[in-house]
């Protein structure tokens, strides 16, 4: 279980928590945020085993029993890209279609989360061996032995001058969301509620934010101004000098 005086946020490859970490540091100055990268295969277990307080995850096409223990808020979707060796004929166009992949050997990683069933199935000819991760699939593509399909952010995370990526037309999207243990309620866990609010775009001055929950500093009552003491008028001083007689007019 994580410590109460810090908050641990897990994130899968391709997710970019930097901007949310910056907002956290601006709003929650007394509780440090710890970022830890987790694999797609381990994303659910990391939450269930309480190794992280919340995580940026890739939502799977089919959820198992562990996912039933989590609360999940979808955040955004990513475009799938086909990654091929440089010089491959598929790199000549601006995008790749399912028909283009019909005869291509496809490396289909185990951490794939695309909903292929709703898109007509996995494209191409899936290889019997399935690499454990998308990164391993990219390494196999670099050897010139096939192609793969990964989220765009994952392809950008592992740049290789020998690889080229093109969007897969009408392909299923990869959905990224924030997840946490369902038994931890955002209504009672202020830090968790703040993190969920940050990634959802809640403003700093929101009524649900930590700032609004801070006790207001009460100002002491203003003291009444002291009554002014009336000044007594001082007698007018008369000059001891004698008035000079007027000169007679001419």
TrEMBL record:
This protein's GO cellular component annotations are: protein-DNA complex
- Report residue spans for region: Disordered: 203-250
> Where in the numbering of this chain does the LysR substrate-binding domain appear?
19-192
Its domain of life? Bacteria
Molecular function terms from GO: DNA binding; DNA-binding transcription factor activity
Low complexity biased stretches: 214-228
Q: Where is the composition biased (Basic residues)?
A: 229-250
Keywords, A to Z, come to: Activator, DNA-binding, Transcription, Transcription regulation
Q: Which Pfam families match?
A: LysR_substrate
The record's comment on protein family reads: Belongs to the LysR transcriptional regulatory family.
Note the PANTHER family from the entry.
HCA OPERON TRANSCRIPTIONAL ACTIVATOR HCAR, TRANSCRIPTIONAL DUAL REGULATOR HCAR-RELATED
UniProt protein name: DNA-binding transcriptional LysR family regulator
Q: Which organism is it from?
A: Hoyosella altamirensis
